[in-house]
UniProtKB/TrEMBL annotation:
Family annotation (PANTHER family): LAO_AO TRANSPORT SYSTEM ATPASE, LYSINE/ARGININE/ORNITHINE TRANSPORT SYSTEM KINASE
Protein name per UniProt: Methylmalonyl Co-A mutase-associated GTPase MeaB
Pfam families in the cross-refs: MeaB (PF03308)
CDD domains in the cross-refs: MMAA-like
Taxonomic lineage from the root: Bacteria, Bacillati, Actinomycetota, Actinomycetes, Kitasatosporales
Source organism per UniProt: Streptomyces smyrnaeus
């Protein structure tokens, strides 16, 4: 068993191994997590969280790595969390990231960590915010969260970031795919990466057009910019950083940052509560209480609603 207080103290001093151990507690849904989160809580709230999502291979890791360099040049401490919602193991699919981000491996101002969330109760929604908290408490000014866009995960990551970046690459029908996947609603900043390839300008135009179609925008509302990058050559990265800074400034001015963070915390609490309830109900399954209720419902002496009420009461009693 880890000495949680000592771990948190070392993580706050910036010890990478302590940070890694704490994130492992998150990944493993450790019983010590509660204690760790309590110790971390007073030290959170400084980090600016940027989510990066997009289809496999679009250039998320390369872009993330280039962003890390840009933020490091500004003297900011950076955390990178690569979340793989499709895998129950970290390491595997994300191994390539270690290569792509290798240049930052020896920089004490950068933490890079991959995390697998499949098989977790609550999945991404449960684990990512807690890992972000760890990086926040460890003194990261910026936390970059990379998630592969598979189904629901884009939307989930958007709910967890202060600013959401959606990456696309040039290609036939990209815009249509974007619309289909619902990503036109979630991006605060859009990046057309691989702009060294044919069709980048057309993709930018198409995206701008589609983003402009969402009419109900008031003066002063945020209009998501579309930035063109060649991440592999760090081109367009300064423009991307400028777009992120601008969005952050806009959010602070409008009170949106505080709103988003409150919504995120509410969602986090809800997820933990639901996960706890689900676990307790699971513990009841096969237990006497649920069996007895089921028998009465089958026998007609109890309706399923009242039975469910009784079950919920039993579960919330502790
Ligand atoms: N031509 C070109 N290739 C790029 C660019 N950016 C990244 N790549 C290449 O695209 C491939 C995928 O890049 P990654 O950064 O791993 O993409 P990713 O979105 O993180 O991929 P997954 O995490 O597997 O979904 C790599 O071979 C990169 O070198 C770019 O701007 N232009
Ligand atoms: Mg990647």
């Amino acid at each position: 068993m880890a000495d949680v207080a000592a771990l948190v103290a070392r993580a706050r001093e910036g010890a990478p191994r302590a940070v890694a151990r704490l994130i492992s507690l998150v990944e493993g849904a450790s019983p010590q997590l509660r204690e760790a989160m309590a110790a971390i809580a007073p030290h959170c709230g400084n980090a600016y969280v940027v989510g990066l999502t997009g289809s496999p291979g679009v250039g998320k890791s390369t872009t993330t790595s280039a962003l890390v360099s840009a933020y490091r040049a500004q003297g900011r401490r950076v955390g990178v969390l690569a979340v793989d919602p499709s895998s129950p193991f970290s390491g595997g699919a994300l191994l390539g990231d270690r290569v792509r981000m290798g240049e930052h491996a020896s920089d004490p101002g950068v933490y890079i960590r991959s995390m697998a969330t499949r098989g977790h109760l609550g999945g991404l929604a449960w684990a990512a915010p807690q890992a972000i908290r760890v990086l926040d408490a460890a003194g990261c000014d910026v936390v970059l969260v990379e998630t592969v866009g598979v189904g629901q995960s884009e939307v989930e990551i958007a709910a967890q970031a202060d600013t959401s970046v959606v990456l696309l690459a040039p290609g036939m029908g990209d815009g249509i795919q974007a619309a289909k996947a619902g990503i036109l609603e979630i991006g605060d900043v859009y990046v057309v990466n691989k702009a060294d390839r044919d069709g980048a300008d057309a993709t930018v135009r198409e995206l701008n057009h589609m983003l402009g179609l969402g009419e109900a925008r008031q003066p002063g509302d945020w209009r998501p910019p579309v930035v063109k990058t060649v991440a592999a050559r760090a081109e367009g990265v300064d423009e991307m950083v400028a777009a992120l800074d601008k969005h952050r400034g806009w959010m602070e001015e409008r009170g949106v940052l505080a709103e988003r963070r409150a919504a995120r915390a509410a969602k986090e609490i809800e997820t933990i509560a639901v996960t706890t309830l689900r676990r307790r109900i699971g513990e009841l399954r096969g237990g006497k209480r649920l069996d007895a209720l089921a028998e009465r419902v089958v026998g007609g002496t109890l309706d399923p609603y009242t039975a469910a009420d009784e079950l919920v009461e039993g579960v919330t009693e502790g």
